[in-house]
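Hi support team,

I submitted a single chain yesterday and got back a structure, but I'm not sure I'm reading the token output correctly. Could someone confirm the output below corresponds to the sequence I sent? I've pasted both exactly as they appear in my results page.

Thanks,
R.
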Amino acid sequence: MLISERLRNIKPSGVRRIFDLARQMKDPINLSIGEPDFDIPEPLKEEGIDWIRKGFNKYTPTQGIPELREKIASHLKKKGVHFEEVMVTAGVTGGLLLASLALINPGDEVIIPDPFFVMYEYQVLLMGGIPVFVDTYPDFRLREEEIVKKLSKKTKAIIINSPNNPTGTIYPKEDLTKVVRIARERELLILSDDIYDNFVFDGPTCPCTGQLYEKTLTFGGFSKGWAMTGWRVGYVAGPREILQQMITLQQYTFSSVNSFAQKAAIKALDFNVDSYIQGYKRKRDLIYEGLKEKFHVQEPKGAFYIFPEVPGGDGEAFVEKAIKNNLFIVPGSVFSKRNTHARISFAASKETLLRGIEVLNRIS
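Hi R., thanks for writing in. Yes, this is the structure output for that exact sequence:
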């Protein structure tokens, strides 16, 4: 067989399948997309264009340009995040892959709260590791006793994603403190995916494990908060010993990160996006209020997703019914070991959201 053994358990993304299907339809109500519906702010686009015109178009240092790394370090220090080293990556996706390559041996177990971003499971599997899922239903809280039950001598790390994709949950500090206590007692690593940390609706900021625990790898980036999805710029901060190995791995994988986008990312960290976030809070309110009477649903506190339990308890069947009504959402089974919910993105226009709410209530 020509295909490598490591791909035996890897399946095509269920999210991408929905995306591809939506693209084939005429005027779909598309609430499946996991990216902001606003464009990169004009000053950031102009910054990137200026650097292209200046000729800043060649390879950059493997770990990222020094001025961006310094800016990220300053940004994280203001947040109170513990770290020794910072590197720039090809989005959070690239950072997670480097971390997985650096840390996971075949047979190592990684704790993943369920529901979860689909990439976590498959990157662990690619390394020959074992994803171990911890149930957070029905309120999407991290419960110490549930985590402890899933620990073993093979446990290597815990992945935390807050604000969360697909639920929109922000884990409260008390939950994160419990996770940190478990990790500290057992000398486990925590991988903290903070990519949605700009999208916080009911408070100024959200807590993160990097503020509480030194053995945390903090992942962040510019794809969500500044809509720079196609420019592929992210970062990782954490213990120097691990980051140095990840930088070496980047030499032999991604080589370096988009040149002009790194320059624009420097400017992005000083660019205020509060008006965008307020707009998303209004969208959150619109869809939550529109669904709460007919659906059992938690109000999202961050990101731009809502994760209702579907009538009848069969998420895949409900999504098929929605697609027949020209509405594209994603079955919860893509993000979970359960098939009881559906992920709905409210990164869409008000008109699209109202059309989607009408269909969802009609078919429920």
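A quick pointer for reading it: The chain has two domains: 5-40+273-363, 57-268. Let us know if anything else looks off.

Best,
Support desk
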